Each structure stands twice: as C-alpha cells, then as structure tokens.
C-alpha cells in the first residue's frame, strides 16, 4: 500500500515546492538583468515591426475597400437601365425619364451607403447633359468634372485620382465610336474626414500620429494638426530614402517614423512616435529589476511559510482522513472554516462519506424493496380473480368457435405471464414495459370492450431505450380497472399518454371513473411521499419507492385529478440536469 512520507521531511511536497521555487526564481533574476540591456535595444524594433504590420493591414483594408468601390462602379457601367437612359433619353416620355432618374438616385444612394469612405457618388451623363448625384440630386451637366475625369482616364493615371484636394475614383462607359466622348462617367468622391478618422485609429499613443501620402500626385492627408506639422518636414528629411523605419531629428524633437507602401494604390502610410515615448517605459526598468531581485528573496521566505501553512498542513489532514476512511470510519468529517480549494476538497470528501453511507443504505433498501415487490407481484398480479376472468374469456371464445381470437388470446396470456414471472433482470427498456402494459389492456379489452374504451398512445422513439424498473406501468393500469372502471355503470375510458422534455420523461395514466375528493387525493399523495414504514406497502407505494431509489427523489408517482374527472397518475423519470433522455 502506498504510504505518505509524513515522517520523512526531506521527501515532503513542502520541501520540493520550495526547492522548485528557488530553481525557477534564480534564473529569472539573472535573466532579468540580461533582459534590461536587450529590451532597451530591441524595444524600438519591436514597436516598428508591430506598427508596420498594422500599417500593412490598414493598407490591405483600404485596398479591399477601393476594390469593392470599383466593383460597384463597373457593375453600374453594365446596368441596363442606366445604359438605356443614356442612349434612348430623347425617345422616352416624361414618366419613363422620371422613373429612370429615380432609379439612378436610389442606386447611387445604395452605393454611397455601402462604404463609410464615400462622400458622394456621381454619374456624368454626357448624352443627356445631366449630372446625377447621391447627395445633390439631379443637376446640370458638370462639364468641368467630366473633362478632367476623361483626361485622367485617357492618360491611364493611377486608380486614385487627386482633384480639388480630395481623392476620387472614376470609370467610363465607352460610346463604341472612335474619338467620341464616353456615354457617361461613374465618379466616386472619397471623404477626407472619414479618412482622417481612420488614420487616427492608427495612433497607438497620445503622442503619436499618422499621415497619408499619394506619391504620384503629391497629395497628403494628416490625422491631426501635429501630424500636419511633421508631414511638411518629412519629405525633405527622408529625401529619396525608401527605408521603412527612420529615426529623424526634426525641429520638434527626435521621432521614430515607420512607413508602409501599397503598389496597388500608389499610397504610403506614415506613423511617427517621439523617441522619449519609446524609452520612457524602459527608463524605470533597471530600478524595477533590482526591486524584483530583492522582492524575490523576500517572496521565497513568504512562499515557504505560506506553502507550509496553506498546503502542507491541510494536505496532511486530508491524508489522515483517508486513512481513517480506509479503516472503516465513515462518520468523522473534516472541519475547515476557510473557503479555499482545500475547503472544496474537504467539502467533497465529507460529501463522499455521506454518499458512501447513502449508497450502502440504498443498496440495502433496494434489495428489500425488490423482495417486497416480488411478493406483492405474486399476491396481486397473479391472482385467482384475473385467472378466472381469463379462463372465462377463453371459454366464451371456445364456445363460439372463434379459433383466431383464441390463438391471439392465448398468445397474449403467454406473453403476459412470461413477462411478470421472469426474474432474470430488475430493469427493462421502456419499450418492453409499455409493450407488456399494452398487452394487459388488450386482454381487458376482450372482457370490457362494450363499456370500457382504451386510448393507449404510441411510445415516442426517444423514450424507447430508457431503462426503468420492471412492472411500473401495468400495476397502475390494473389498479384503475379494479378500483374504478369495473365499478362504473356507464361507459369507462382509460387513457395512457407520454410526454418528454430535456430533463424528464412522463407516462400519464388517467381514467374517467368515480370523482376522487380532495381529502382522499391528499391522503394518497402523503402516503406516497412518506418514508415511514408504518404504512402498508401498497403496489403504488412500491412503484414510487423503486423509481425514487433509481432516479432520485424528484422522480416517482405524482397524483392529481384528471380532466376526465377520475384519478390521474403521472410517472416521472428525471435525468441529470442538461442530459437528454435517449
């Protein structure tokens, strides 16, 4: 048997933990001294790499946005209604013209709202001398814009056009004739303020800033006023340098500049950060390094003491309790006032002791209940009254010569008695239990078919494989016949239904027999819920106890008054929380 080395102090977990802590902390102290020098040299490089990565992601995002806008442009160029409007304007009546213009305005508004970077979207229709805008409605033909955009398209300039201190995108619909102006030009104007806001999001520190450069056109856009000041000095300071990271000494101070360039857009994004901002966190690193070394040695002492008090001693208590449990002492719980991890372990250990006692007690009770169930089965289910009625039915069928029904009835009797007399297993599947109960009702239907009707629903497929104690449904049905339905003067009704949800399966047996009063119903319910042995062990109490022992106290039989006005018995089978019945 494994023995806990309580008397061998050097082999305890406490000493091993302290030595492990020393082995871990001393290299960390030495490493901290080295990291001070290494971190100061590499901090700016790491900041630059992170910034460049951020800038490249930003440019990729802008490029995707521009590509999306270009797709919208070219999709608009192929729009049938727009082309029809540009070509057949003179042949349209006023209704068609108005409808066409409304369609264009709606289409342009949709494009404008599709991107936060769009300030306005225009279509310059040269053939009808109109300019349609998403923000400014329909206006006279903007000849100046049309000529400038056409000239830029003829030159095959960059994707981004710079005009009137703003960035633009344009695409033209060719007229199909040589040396002729295009039918129309789709023109998107980007919003400088939105671009400034997106640039400001790149500023990681309050002292940092960013600006955008369109290299081929000399266009610049700064995120704030400080960035505008440095933006004017930056081109002269770097001249023709293409370095992605640069340290520049400007009028305002020394700054780290990081630049990323997109060939697809012909655009550069530049961010800057003061040198003092980069070194500020590292300036205190040396002080913290020495403080860390001193505090580490203090922590060793505190760690050793706290480990002994909060780990070693509680662990010894737990080990000693396990030894007592191995000796058979299940009535000595561990007392622990603190709500820590050991408190949880002690609580679970105490719970385990109670559970062991409960399982021992439950196993004893369950065996006793099964013995009583088998005795009750012989006394109440294989009784002369049932046998007499069965042979009476068989005799009546024999007199009429109904051999088919005789064969059917004898097969049913054989299956019925085979199920209730077999002792090989205490639990069966729900489908077997329901099959047996349905067979019992079929036998009773041959006897009472004229005055007792049976509604027996089909068992849901999800409930078919649930394992249940044997003989929990048929005795309840038999009780309904014996104490209610057989004594009725009018037509009787027995109904068996099934219900199911995620945490519970229910079998409901109800009838329209004599109305049960509240006192009688309350008495029966109390007897079912009572754990006292003073009551006689009836069939229903036996079923209730067996289900409760198997599935927990929330399972069992629950009685109420049926909508049919007779007794309603609900057999509930609870499962663990969140576990589906299948």
Automatic annotation (TrEMBL):
**What GO molecular function terms would the record report?**
protein histidine kinase activity
Under the heading SUPFAM superfamilies, the entry gives:
ATPase domain of HSP90 chaperone/DNA topoisomerase II/histidine kinase, HAMP domain-like
TM stretches of this protein: 13-36, 287-305
Q: Domain of life, per the record?
A: Bacteria
Q: Name the predominant localization.
A: membrane
PROSITE patterns attached here?
HAMP
Where is this chain's protein located in or outside the cell? Cell membrane
What are the protein's UniProt keywords?
A: Cell membrane, Kinase, Membrane, Phosphoprotein, Transferase, Transmembrane, Transmembrane helix
The record's InterPro entries line, in alphabetical order, gives: Bact_2-comp_sensor_kinase, HAMP_dom, HATPase_C_sf, HATPase_dom, Sig_transdc_His_kin_internal
Q: Which Gene3D superfamilies does its entry note?
A: 6.10.340.10, Histidine kinase-like ATPase, C-terminal domain (3.30.565.10)
Question: EC number(s) per UniProt?
Answer: 2.7.13.3
Give the enzyme's main class according to its UniProt record, as a single word: transferase
Q: What is this protein called?
A: Sensor histidine kinase
Upper classification of the source organism reads:
Bacteria, Bacillati, Bacillota, Bacilli, Bacillales
């Amino acid at each position: 048997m494994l023995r806990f080395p309580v008397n061998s102090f050097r082999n305890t977990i406490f000493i091993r933990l302290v030595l492990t802590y020393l082995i871990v902390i001393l290299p960390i102290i030495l490493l901290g001294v080295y990291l001070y020098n290494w971190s100061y040299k590499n901090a700016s490089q790491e900041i630059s790499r992170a910034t460049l990565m951020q800038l490249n992601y930003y440019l990729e995002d802008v490029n995707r946005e521009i590509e999306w806008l270009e797709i919208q442009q070219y999709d608009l160029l192929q729009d049938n209604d727009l082309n029809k409007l540009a070509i057949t304007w003179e042949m349209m009546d006023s209704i068609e013209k108005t409808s066409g213009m409304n369609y264009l305005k709606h289409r342009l508004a949709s494009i404008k709202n599709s991107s936060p970077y769009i300030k306005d979207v225009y279509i310059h229709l040269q053939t009808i001398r109109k300019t349609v805008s998403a923000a400014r409605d329909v206006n006279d033909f903007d000849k100046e814009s049309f000529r400038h955009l056409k000239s830029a398209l003829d030159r095959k300039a960059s994707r981004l056009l710079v005009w009137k201190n703003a960035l633009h995108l344009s695409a033209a619909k060719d007229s199909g004739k040589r040396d002729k102006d295009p039918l129309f030009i789709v023109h998107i104007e980007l919003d400088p303020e939105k671009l400034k806001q997106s640039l400001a999001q790149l500023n990681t520190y309050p002292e940092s800033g960013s600006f955008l450069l369109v290299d081929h056109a000399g266009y610049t856009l700064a995120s704030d006023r400080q960035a505008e000041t440095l933006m004017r000095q930056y081109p002269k300071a770097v001249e023709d340098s293409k370095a992605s990271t640069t340290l520049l000494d400007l009028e305002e101070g020394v700054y780290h500049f990081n630049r990323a360039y997109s060939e697809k857009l012909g655009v550069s994004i530049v961010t800057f950060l003061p040198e003092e901002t980069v070194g500020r966190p590292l300036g205190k690193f040396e002080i913290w390094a020495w403080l860390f070394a001193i505090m580490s040695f203090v922590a060793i002492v505190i760690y050793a003491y706290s480990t002994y008090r909060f780990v070693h001693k509680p662990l010894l208590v737990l080990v000693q309790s396990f030894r007592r449990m191995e000796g058979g002492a299940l009535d000595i719980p561990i007392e622990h006032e603190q709500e820590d991890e050991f408190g949880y372990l002690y609580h679970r250990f105490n719970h385990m002791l109670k559970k062991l006692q409960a399982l021992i007690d439950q196993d004893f009770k369950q065996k006793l209940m099964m013995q009583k169930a088998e005795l009750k089965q012989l006394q109440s289910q294989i009784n002369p009254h049932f046998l007499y009625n069965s042979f009476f039915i068989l005799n009546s069928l024999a007199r009429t010569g109904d051999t088919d029904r005789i064969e059917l009835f004898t097969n049913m009797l054989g299956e019925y008695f085979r199920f209730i007399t077999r002792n090989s297993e205490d639990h069966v599947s729900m489908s077997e239990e329901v099959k047996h109960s349905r067979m019992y009702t079929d036998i009773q239907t041959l006897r009472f078919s004229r005055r007792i009707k049976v509604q027996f629903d089909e068992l849901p497929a999800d409930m078919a494989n649930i394992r249940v104690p044997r003989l929990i449904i048929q005795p309840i049905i038999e009780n309904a016949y014996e104490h209610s339905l057989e004594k009725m003067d009018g037509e009787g009704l027995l109904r068996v239904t099934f219900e199911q949800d995620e945490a519970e399966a229910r079998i409901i047996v109800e009838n329209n027999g004599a109305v049960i009063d509240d006192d009688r119903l309350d008495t029966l319910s109390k007897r079912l819920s009572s754990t006292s042995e003073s009551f006689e062990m009836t069939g229903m109490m036996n079923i209730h106890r067996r289900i409760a022992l198997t599935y927990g106290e929330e399972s069992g039989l629950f009685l109420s008054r049926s909508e049919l006005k007779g007794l309603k018995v609900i057999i509930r089978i609870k499962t663990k929380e969140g576990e589906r019945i299948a």
